[in-house]
Structure formats: C-alpha cells, structure tokens
Write a structure and sequence with these properties.
The chain is an alpha/beta fold and 436 residues long. The chain has 19 helices and 8 strands. A hairpin with a 7-residue loop joins β7 and β8. The structure holds guanosine-5'-triphosphate (GTP) and magnesium ion.
C-alpha cells in the first residue's frame, strides 16, 4: 500500500539528515519535496498546500526542535498532521437503536457488495444477528453474488428475484428482519452515478423510508482524485455518515485516503484490503499515517525527543542554580515536570527500598495542586523575589489560592530548603550518589 508515496517521503526527509537545526530554509526545501510527493500520489492540491503550510508553521514554532534532529522532528510533525488530515481518531459505526440499519451506496464496481459481506462477517463475529438485503434490482447476477456471500459467512439474506421497485423491496426486507428479531440489517444497493437523476432519487428515497443508523459511501481508492469528487457529489445528495475505502491492497497511490476527509468532512470508517471476507479493518488515521510514512517506530521517536528536551531543561536549571537564580517560577516548572512524568507514587516505588516503605501511604499528584495554586496567585515579581512577601501580600495570596497563611509559609520554607539543597548539588557540594 502506498509504496511510492512512502518512498518519496522518505527521500524528502533524507535531505534533512545531518542538519543541525531546523531553519526556514532547510525545511522549505524538504517540504517542497513532500508536497510534490503528495500531489503525485493524487492528493488534492489544495489539501497538500494547506498541509505543508501547517507542517511548516509547526516545525518552525516547535520549541523542542533544538533537542532533536530535524529530520526526526519533521517526520513526527508530518505523521501527526497526516493522521489529523485523515480524521485524527477512528470513528466507530453507529449501531443504535436496534435494529441497526446500515445502507451501503456508491459507484458501480466500487466494492459495495463485497463490503456488505465483509461487514456482515465482522458483525456476526461480534454476536449480532444479521440480515443482508439485496437491493440491487438492475444487475441480474447481483442477487446471486450476495446470496453466495451470505451462505459463505452464514447469515440470512432477503431478496426478490425480478423485483422492479427497490424502495418497496428494501422496506419489505426490513420488515422481515424485524419479524425475525434480527438486530442488524445491511442493505446492498445498485451502483450508480451521481449524475443519474433517477437512481439518485431511488437511493435518497430508500434512505428516507428506512431511516438507517448508518449510511456508508463505498469508494474505490484506486480511482484517486475521482474518488474524492464522487464522494463530494454523493454527500451533497445523500448526506452519508461515513466512508469505506476499498482496494487498499492494490497499488493505489493513496491520494483518496488522504484528501477525502478534508474535502468531504465525513469520517473514514473502514478500509477494505482484498476480496476475502476477513480483509476488512476499522480505519485508524494514526496507524494509516504510520503505514504511509513506513515508520513503525514513531512512539519511541517521540519519547526520545521528550527525553532530550528534558535534558536541556535540566541543564538550564543547573546553570540557574549555580548563579543563585532559582525562583518560585522555576519551582513551579519543576513540579510540572514531575507531574508530566506520571504518578509520583509509581515513580518513587522504582527507587530501590522505597517501594515497600510507601506502599501504604496515600500519595497522588494532587498534593501538588495546592502548591501550584499558591504560586499561580503570586505576581511575577513575587515569584522572582519571595522576600517581597509581607503579611498583607500573603493574605491576598491565601485568598486567591483558597489556602491559608500557614500553608503559604510552609511552601516558602520548602522552597528555601529545596533551593539550598539544589544549589549544593549543582555546585558539587554533595558527594555523588554511589553507583550500584
Ligand atoms: N483487491 C480488492 N478487490 C476488491 C475489494 N473489494 C472488492 N473487490 C473486487 O472488486 C470487484 C467489484 O466488487 P463488488 O463488491 O462486486 O462491487 P460493487 O460495488 O458491488 O459493484 P456493482 O454492484 O456492480 O456496482 C469484485 O471483483 C471484487 O472482488 C478490495 O478491497 N480489494
Ligand atoms: Mg454490487
């Protein structure tokens, strides 16, 4: 899937390798390449342009860039933006209220009937009772095709050979499914063009008469830009709930997958990756972005970036301490760093010998909340120079933070002690901890 695009993107990122720092000039070059790669993969040019602008802005504005190597940073930003472009998070289909009716529509040969079978198969495995309705009354072999699939996966099917009114047929099918107590009804329909007025009237009438929980638009990803255009046309008429991308197992260029969400503003819900019944997957924008970039290891990349960033922050802090510039603002920043690292009880338990000692203690990160509230209630000058805090200022801060004088004094004492201690560490005044 998307081999060309992946390769092209990888090549654009290579340009950045070895560059010490992201600058407007060196990313401009590489992003121009990324944009070319996207357009060649048949991504809508407007989508590609907006995408590149966003990535550029993020890359330049990113304050962690000094800590990571630029190509890693750009890969991460591109990956996150790609996922965002495809919807960010995955969207489940709606199966309520029961019985859930799912109406499937799209162009001829896009993979509707195959998808109906696959969806039935997936939902049957989840324990749902399924009725497939053969709503394609125009192609003689259509009923046979769905009948074979229904037998193969072991679900019921409603069909009327020789029927002439698809709307009435579907209504009867729904009635029958309800009578049988089935909770999931999947309606296959004939392929149609958005310009075919008669057939578009038919599908909108079907939708109106059965009021489906989900109307899904099935689109062949191999058709690239056309896929996006037809999706738009169908959506204007049918107002569908989600998109199913088919034939992603082929050598599709990927443009449809990337642009459809932005252009149509409806979530991609499933992707179909073959002719067999077990090749349907829920569409996950983030996993798709990983696949497109051909990088499975993004998570560790992010962690690494984070680690390096923290290292730099720590170095800065050390320098401040040496110069005796440690303020309440820094104290606050430190608390926030610790909070970011996770639950302090979990963290502390990793220190040998400590775990057992604190096992029964009730500590959680909310112990920091008061401290934070107090510091937030101070003016910037007060945070810089706690000596300013006379009793009237303290009273004001106590009011602002919902605490009292005793708590403020306690915090100031803690701050004094910790800055004294940290200064000693920073200037090498304390013996190094023995290595284990
Ligand atoms: N490789 C691949 N082939 C698929 C996929 N989905 C469907 N096909 C094939 O595409 C062809 C058309 O699929 P159908 O499910 O019949 O498409 P349809 O939209 O129902 O077609 P009409 O009813 O004629 O409009 C068949 O040969 C399918 O086997 C897929 O995800 N991957
Ligand atoms: Mg069909």
């Amino acid at each position: 899937m998307f081999e060309n695009l992946s390769e092209r993107l990888e090549r654009s990122f290579k340009l950045l390798k070895g560059q010490g720092r992201i600058s407007e000039i060196n990313i401009a070059e590489s992003l121009k390449d990324v944009r070319k790669a996207l357009v060649e993969a048949d991504v809508n040019y407007k989508v590609a342009k907006t995408f590149i602008d966003t990535v550029k802005q993020k890359a330049i504005g990113e304050n962690v860039i000094k800590a990571v190597n630029p190509s890693q940073m750009i890969v991460k930003i591109v990956r996150d933006e790609l996922a965002q472009l495809m919807g960010g998070t995955s969207t489940e289909i709606n199966l309520k209220p029961a019985p859930a009716i799912i109406l499937v529509a799209g162009l001829q040969g896009s993979g509707k009937t195959t998808f109906c079978g696959k969806l039935a198969n997936t939902l049957k495995k989840k324990g749902r009772g399924i009725m497939l309705i053969a709503g394609d009354i125009y192609r003689p072999a259509a009923v046979d095709q769905l009948t074979i699939l229904a037998e193969q996966i072991g679900v019921q099917i409603y069909s009327e050979p020789g029927a002439t009114d698809a709307v009435a047929l579907v209504e009867r099918g729904v009635k029958e499914a309800k009578a049988k107590g089935l909770n999931t009804i999947i309606v296959d329909t004939a392929g149609r063009l958005a310009i075919d007025e008669k057939l578009m009237m038919e599908i909108t009438s079907i939708k109106k008469s059965i009021n489906p929980a989900e109307t899904l638009f099935v689109v062949d990803s191999m058709t690239g830009q056309d896929a996006v255009n037809t999706a738009k046309e169908f959506n204007d008429r049918l107002d569908f709930d989600g998109v199913v991308l088919t034939k992603l197992d082929g050598d599709t260029r990927g443009g449809a997958a990337i642009s459809i969400r932005t252009v149509v503003d409806k979530p991609l819900k499933y992707m179909s990756l073959g002719e067999k019944m077990d090749t349907l997957e829920v569409f996950h924008p983030d996993r798709m972005a990983d696949r497109i970039l051909g990088m499975g290891d993004i998570v560790s990349l992010v962690e690494k970036a984070q680690e390096q960033f923290d290292e730099e922050a720590a170095k800065k802090m050390q320098a401040k301490l040496r110069k005796n510039e440690f303020t309440l603002t820094d104290f606050l920043a430190q608390i926030q760093q610790v909070k970011k690292m996770g639950n302090i009880k979990d963290l502390a338990s990793m220190i040998p010998g400590v775990g057992k000692a604190i096992k029964n203690l009730d500590i959680d990160n909310s112990v920091f909340n008061k401290t934070e509230a107090i510091i937030y209630s101070m003016t910037p000058e007060e945070r810089q120079n706690p000596a300013l805090l006379n009793s009237s200022r303290k009273t004001r801060i106590a009011k602002g933070s919902g605490t009292d004088l005793a708590e403020i004094n306690k915090l100031l004492k803690q701050f004094q002690e910790s800055s004294k201690m940290m200064k000693m560490v920073a200037t090498g005044g304390l013996p190094k901890m023995p290595r284990r």
